[in-house]
Design brief:
Layout: H1 3-18, E1 22-25, H2 30-45, E2 49-51, H3 53-62, E3 67-71, H4 76-83, E4 89-94, H5 99-105, E5 113-116, H6 119-132, H7 139-150
Helix pairs in contact: 1-4, 2-6, 6-7
C-alpha cells in the first residue's frame, strides 16, 4: 500500500483511539496477520462476516457487537466515517494486507473493511491480535484480558 495513504490512515486511527471511538489492535508479524486472514475467510464461509463500508456502518448503527478489520490501504475518509456515533468498536488494522488481498481472502473483490459478527470467531481473532500486539505496557492487564476472552484457557 501507498506509504502516504498508510500514514494518513494511521493518523486518523490514532485520533480515533484517543477519542475512544476505536480500540486499535495491530498484528506485528506477517505470520500472525496470515492467521487472522485465515480466520476471516472462515468467518465468511460460516456467514459471520459483513464486508463493505455501507454494510459495516449499517451494522454499527444497529447496535450489534462486532470486530472490525481494515486493510492497510483503507482511505482516511472511510476511517473518519467509522468514528461517527457513540459506539466503540475494536478494529484490527492489517498493516501488510491491501484491500485486494483482503477481498481475495474473504471471497470478494477489493474490500477495505469488514466486520466479524459471529461472536466466537470474533473472540478468537481478537485473542490472536492481542497476543501479537506490541508493545505491552501492562502485562498483567493484557493477561487478564486474554483470560477473559479465552474463557480462562490462557495461563
Amino acid at each position: 500500500p501507498d506509504d502516504e495513504k498508510r500514514k494518513a490512515a494511521l493518523a486518523v486511527l490514532s485520533t480515533a483511539e484517543e477519542d475512544a471511538k476505536l480500540i486499535l489492535l495491530e498484528p506485528s508479524t506477517a505470520g500472525n496477520e496470515e492467521k487472522i486472514l485465515s480466520l476471516l475467510g472462515l468467518a465468511e464461509r460460516a456467514g459471520g462476516l459483513v464486508s463493505g463500508m455501507d454494510a459495516v456502518l449499517a451494522l454499527k448503527t444497529s447496535g450489534k457487537n462486532c470486530l472490525l478489520c481494515a486493510a492497510a490501504d483503507i482511505s482516511p475518509g472511510s476511517l473518519k466515517r467509522l468514528r461517527r456515533g457513540d459506539d466503540v468498536f475494536p478494529l484490527i488494522y492489517l498493516r501488510k494486507t491491501d484491500k485486494n488481498e483482503l477481498g481475495r481472502r474473504i471471497g470478494r473483490r477489493g474490500t477495505a473493511l469488514c466486520a466479524v459478527v459471529e461472536e466466537q470467531l470474533a473472540k478468537e481473532i481478537r485473542l490472536k491480535a492481542l497476543r501479537i500486539h506490541e508493545p505491552c505496557e501492562d502485562k498483567s492487564q493484557k493477561m487478564n484480558e486474554l483470560r477473559e476472552l479465552s474463557g480462562g484457557q490462557v495461563k
